[in-house]
Amino acid sequence: MSRRRTTTTAVISLAAAAYVGSASAQTGSTALSGRATLGLRSVDIDGSTDKYREDINLDDGVRLFDFSFSYAPEDDGAVDRVDVDVANLGSDPFETIQLSARKYGAYEISLNRRRSEFFYRDVILPAALASIEGSTGGDFHTFDFVRQHDSANASIYLTPATKLLVGLDRYTRTGDSATTLDVQRDEFDLERPIDESMDSLRLGVQHAWDKVTLVVEQQSSDFDNVTHLTLPGASAGINPADPAELAFFRFDQAADYRSLAHVFQVVARPSDRLQISSSWRFESLELDLDAAEQSEGVDFMDQPFTTDVSGFAGVDRDLALGDVDLTYRLNERLQLIGGIRRQELDQDGVLGFGASAGSGAWDITTTGTDAGIEVAASDRVLISAGLSRESRDVSDRAALDSDTFGGNVETDRSGYFLRMSYRTRSGVELTASIEDNDIDDAFALSAPTDSQRYRLRGRYRWDNGIALTASWRRNEHENEPSAWSADTEQTSIHVSYSTANVDLSLGLGAIEMSRDIEQLVTGGFRQDLYSIAYLADSDLYDASARWRLSARYTLGLGFHSYNNGGSYQLDRDDLRAYLEIDLRDNYFLEVRVRSVDYNEDEFDDYEADLLELGFGLEW
Amino acid sequence: MPMIVCDSLIRAANGVSTVFPRFSVALATFLFLLLTHSADVGAQLNGTEQARCRACHNGRFASAESGPHSVLNDEQRADRLNVDFYCTACHGDASAHIAADGQARIFAFRDESALERTAVCAGCHSNDHPEFATSPHAQTGLSCSDCHSQHDGLHDAALLNPVTDLRSLFHSLSPSSAICIDCHRETEAQFALNERHRLREGILECASCHNPHERSATTALGGFRQQACMDCHADKGGPFVFEHSASRVEGCTACHSPHGSQNRHMLTHQRVGELCISCHATVPQFHVGFSPVGQPRFGLDTQCTNCHSSIHGSHFDPYFLR
Prior knowledge:
The complex is a heterodimer of chains A (about 625) and B (about 325).
Chain A (H helix, E strand, L loop, with lengths): L2 H25 L4 E16 L1 H7 L5 E11 L9 E9 L4 E10 L3 E14 L21 E18 L2 E22 L2 E6 L2 E15 L3 E19 L14 E24 L5 E25 L5 E28 L2 E20 L2 E21 L4 E20 L2 E21 L5 E12 L9 E12 L4 E14 L4 E15 L3 E22 L2 E23 L4 E14 L3 E13 L4 E13 L6 E13 L1
Antiparallel strand pairs in A: 1-2, 1-27, 2-3, 3-4, 4-5, 5-6, 6-7, 7-8, 7-9, 9-10, 10-11, 11-12, 12-13, 13-14, 14-15, 15-16, 16-17, 17-18, 18-19, 19-20, 20-21, 21-22, 22-23, 23-24, 24-25, 25-26, 26-27
Chain B lengths: L1 H16 L3 H15 L5 H16 L1 H8 L9 H7 L4 H6 L3 H5 L14 H12 L10 H4 L35 H9 L1 H4 L6 E2 L30 H4 L11 E2 L1 H6 L9 E2 L10 H8 L2 E2 L1 H4 L24 E2 L8
Antiparallel strand pairs in B: 1-3, 2-5
Helix pairs in contact in B: 1-2, 2-3, 3-4
């Protein structure tokens, strides 16, 4: 959106808000409430602008920081409630627009737009320290694109028992990117514009009889992706020692797929104690693709070459997903749960590109069952325990010319879970859970054969406004045959204190991750042992305070610090402050400052200072 | 229509109640009887009880009237759901509580077990979330009223309990995300890492990927844990003629940490070579060079994706070179 349009929109929105707000005040109506803030932002960056754009990406300029209103009339008209919520309008990297309207028992409509910018350009090592032959030196993939997701959803009660469901989604991704490609055994940087869209439609009906509810839904999706890889200019490749050169390169690929899904859901309640629910999804997808490659240059044998090939690819996928769940409440203290799930995927693809022909096929069948019991040992204590099993059969077959690939892997998982919660009358909440799984024949060397998850959480709120939350979680994964292990441990403590004029909070967090494997890599006649020991040790601190100094002045302060040790050093400090001044007639002024200090290595450091001035109205 | 008129008159009667409380109750009762002269005794009793609820719990009553549960005042819907009026639809028989002037217990969604509280909501809403009993939330003792409130959550379409301390300096969180993070603080910390999905910036919500009313993603069947990812990352999900097996079978989390990571592209390793070698123990000869001694050509610092750039899947090359 252009800055002129943004400014115009923002001014009109604020004017509208002012009109609505004053009208509401004059009539004394409490049906309308809302807030709008229009302002200016100034940004000063010192250091890596690319890293700032990856991390924060806020720009200078006029902004509609927020605009929201809710309308809930007391009379029984065509609408019971309307909500509008707009945030960060004005070319900020994350814009959201949400509108909803509903009449309880009659209809519900929502419209949403989410627009986000993604930028990535990262240097790992300077070129002088890189090993070209070893293909180290940097991440040559860059991205600068916009994602936009527009959705419209409606549910309309045709009768008190029948509801019509409609959903429309449009997703687009457009922008620029760069990638690398192996051509003649050397790597070349190529430009890759992004042009992608997905349109989806959902249409369904839900009908509720006395003891049974049925949902039938049709979903269709249409996905288009156009890819062009182009050489920005003649290139000797990334490795100057390699004789390969490119004078011209272009690769075009246009892909689109259409999918159609039929969804059925049945919920039956034969009695007050028994519920049986079942859902089924049958989806078929067809992908068609055309591609062409033209290139001209010198090959790895120092001989001139040209290529001009074209081809096609097509993939058909059929997917069936089904589950049946049962809940039986024996009494107010005891409930049995159980379920069966099955999934079947059948995928076949073929390709023809120049003189090459190939195919790829997948068959995946998965069956899972679980059963458990929930016991309310008292009004304060709930204990749940259960068993689960899953059996997966994966078969893949691929071929390209005379080469064939593929195999068959059958994986079985069995596990149990145990969860407990305890809540006292004084407001203490304690929860604990354990999940343990054993897996036979994991699919990959870095997929677990043994997996545990532990979780503890406690919370208490005092009557004087103090609240304390503490949580701990640990995941342990291990593959016994390959000796791979991956552990994650997270801890968090948070204290807050709230009164009518003061809000204080303090939080401490720690995230520790480790992934280890001693991998013996075979390359022809060589075997080399690679020792992988990845460690991430992150500490996070945050503190915030909000103090209503007087009827007119409110002060806010906040500090967030993150530092990561282990295999990759990084730290970021984020300091914020704001002052809100209440003016007459519900108008207010805001002054916000923010200072970010990011340190990754000497190539990706930045410091950013942001100043925002806002003028707003609240009604 | 009679109910709407009756409701308006009861409001008017209550407007008088600040001065003449007994008179207003009597007036409301008289008006109700007058307007519903064809109603049976049961309906008249319910109207009286409804007025009694309001007399003591005016704020709660008003919030119910202005919320979605007000549809229970619709006779046809109330008949179908076999409820009297919206207070007793959730709080059960109020006669003892009223008779004892509020001293006798009533189902208040406060002291009852999670199973009992959930069963009340499920009486009407089991269609909406039939799998809730199988979810880790239900199994950890949460009931509907721990996140939703008919009386306190009216600012939000999903009737979520307001969590104000998180919508502050460091967050543009949606109300639904704030509810999740009120408990899942340790998970929220991952969204503060340098490579992250933009939850704190408000462009995504926890519910964008998770359904809190269903079983956990870890028990979802293998290979399709990535379905939530494909809503935004459709280009990575194929289908491809040549699939990256780990992605197709184990899902995106085989290589990525979806909440946030210290590593580029939210990978589980900072060095791409480390991640790839974790699984791939066999490589072509030319990768490691032709000398039996000395350093191999490639190692943990190698950017494998410089050549294998179509790493999520390829239509033309089984080694993801195109």
